[in-house]
Amino acid sequence: MENKEAGTPPPIPSRERRLQPTLLLATLSAAFGSAFQYGYNLAVVNTPHKVFKSFYNETYFERHATFMDGKLMLLLWSCTVSMFPLGGLLGSLVVGLLVDSCGRKGTLLINNIFAIVPAILMGVSKVAKAFELLIFSRVVLGVCAGISYSALPMYLGELAPKNLRGLLGTMTEVFVIVGVFLAQIFSLQGILGNPEGWPVLLALTGVPALLQLLTLPFFPESPRYSLIQKGDEATARQALRRLTGHMDLEAEVEDMRVEARAERAEGHLSVLRLCALRSLRWQLLSIIVLMAGQQLSGINAINYYADTIYASAGVEAAHSQYVTVGSGMVNIVMTVTSAVLVERLGRRRLLLAGYGICGSACLVLTVVLLFQNKVSELSYLGIICVFAYIAGHSTGPSPVPSVVRTEIFLQSSRRAAFMVDGAVHWLTNFIVGFLFPSIQEAIGAYSFIIFAGICLLTAVYIYMVIPETKGKTFVEINRIFAKRNRVKLAEEKKEETIDAGPPTPSPAKETSF
After folding, report:
1. Which residues contact 27 (CB under 8 A, 6 or more apart)?
2. Residue 402 predicted with pLDDT over 60
3. Residue 111, SS3?
């Protein structure tokens, strides 16, 4: 009787799902082919940059019988590096159209074209004596990374049951870090980071794409995409059976039906409507803060400054590459640790702990850089600060936003939200890479005080605004944010209308929308 009066069906208790082989293999196929590739291309040009510059100079000499001047070399190399985030920005703007028209899995498969083609071009660039192929390929690889960085968390977040959503959501960042680490290994001068091996080093980016093309078609499309957007419940049930290994799927299906009703009430959202809608105001602001905080908190600056810090501690230039590999190991260990702990400690704790460690490391590093010439022992503390910062960032700010951004939006708004999210991620990435050298030249070590301040402000926002989403369904999380946005959901309004009977005149008040 109570449920009949309320006008809603009785809730079906959901059971804790275990990680089934199909779900595990689908995650590995999708993450290795997309996130690993993104991380690999992010780091592969860093360590052997002198080898690439030498190739640019030699090619220019063969064409013009003279070597490049310093300004032209700086311009070409800046283009080579900065085209990657700009391509990522472009990819983030088209991903919404792809995930709606081709599906989550279909988007990942199509995206492999943007990895295989540039891999071939970079592999033949030395033979063709055309450094322009490297610059063009970096743009295309950026587009590939921009699509992957949005489509992959969406796919994994929609595949996972709620008790595994945190674990699978962090797999995006885990495989990005693994890609970065292997790029650092392969880039060592004794392996492929030399004049003979660099074409192979760059062409290896096509291998994960080929493996994904061979394996991902055998795994199911997102059940939520099939049921909510395509209205195909039979396909969704079949996918759920394969992913969960259970025949009793009523709890999961009912959860998707509720979300589908919420989507029909809310309507399909464009980016402009998303930005104007009051009911999604705090969700939108939250992903902007999380993604901007992730990039503006200083991770790229730490990587940029690392060689200088290592050199001041007495590490020879030839050996600094091995210290970099050591920091990569710390990165992997802490990111995997975060993936294990995210469903135990929750999202908020990891984010707050991570930003706390990063902010503290930036403050201590400022002191070290200011006084290491007077107290030489402080230079070793600088290395500890770098490793501590990397450990802190890998605990929360790097992996956890990929989980949260999937959880705080329903299916109807997720596409537009990920376009905004991706644009903020790549734009702030480009801004830091473009402006930090100038800021560092102007104010030196004091630049890390700025990063410490950003860490503090981001942590305060997380503490005040972002709720704990561990163990909650998408609809439950949506209800939490509805209270924060001071709006009533469509189903709540319907229940009030049923309970209250015919409407009666009332004084004018502020409306929900």
Report:
1. 156, 159, 168, 171
2. yes
3. helix
Are 146 and 418 in contact, with CB atoms under 8 Å apart?
Answer: no
Does this model's pTM top 0.85? no
At residue 469, what is the residue type? T
Q: Are 361 and 369 in contact (CB under 8 A)?
A: no
The residue among 503 and 343 whose pLDDT is bigger is 343
Nearest to 469 by CA among 369, 400, 415: 400
The amino acid at 231:
G
Q: Which residues lie closer than 8 Å to 475 by C-beta, 6 or more apart?
A: 255, 258, 259, 262, 410
**What pLDDT is stored for residue 215 in this prediction?**
95
Residue in the structure block whose two tokens are 């710390």: 330
Nearest to 398 by CA among 312, 268, 300, 506: 300
Which amino acid is located at 127 in the chain? V
**Is the CB of residue 485 less than 8 Å from the CB of residue 478?**
no
Q: How far apart are CA 110 and CA 102, in angstroms?
A: 9
More confident residue, 290 or 274: 290
Please state, in angstroms and as integers, the Cα–Cα distance from residue 273 to each residue in 41, 96, 410, 413, 420, following that order: 34, 14, 15, 10, 12
Pairwise CA distance, residues 78 & 214, whole Å: 35
253 to 104, 227, 235, 415: CA distances (angstroms): 19, 9, 12, 21
CA neighbor of 411 nearest in space, from 113, 104, 135: 104
Percent of the chain at pLDDT > 70 equals: 86
**Coil, helix or strand at residue 222:** coil
Supply 261's token pair.
């009703």
- CB-based burial label for 419 (10 Å; 0-12, 13-18, 19+): buried
What is the Cα–Cα distance from 3 to 495, expressed in whole angstroms? 11
Rg (CA), the chain: 25
pLDDT at 244 over 60: yes
Token pair of 89 as six digits: 């920005």
How many residues are there in the chain? Answer: 513
Torsion of CA 429, 432, 433, 434, to 10 degrees: 120
Nearest by Cα to 415 from 262, 292, 271 = 271
Report how far residue 438's alpha carbon sits from residue 444's, in angstroms, rounded to the nearest whole number: 9
Residues 89 and 346: their CA atoms lie apart, in Å, by: 30
Q: Which tokens in the block code for residue 100?
A: 């709606």
Question: Hey, what amino acid is at 105?
Answer: K
Q: How many CB atoms lie within 10 A of CB 288?
A: 17
Rounded CA-CA distance 32/211 in Å is 9
pLDDT tens digits, residue range 61-81? 888 888 888 888 888 887 888
Tell me the three state secondary structure of residue 206.
helix
Please enumerate, as own/partner, the contacts of 190-197 that have beta carbons within 8 Å and a separation of 24 or more: 193/47, 193/48, 193/51, 194/48, 194/51, 195/51, 195/54, 195/55
CA distance 343 to 345: 6
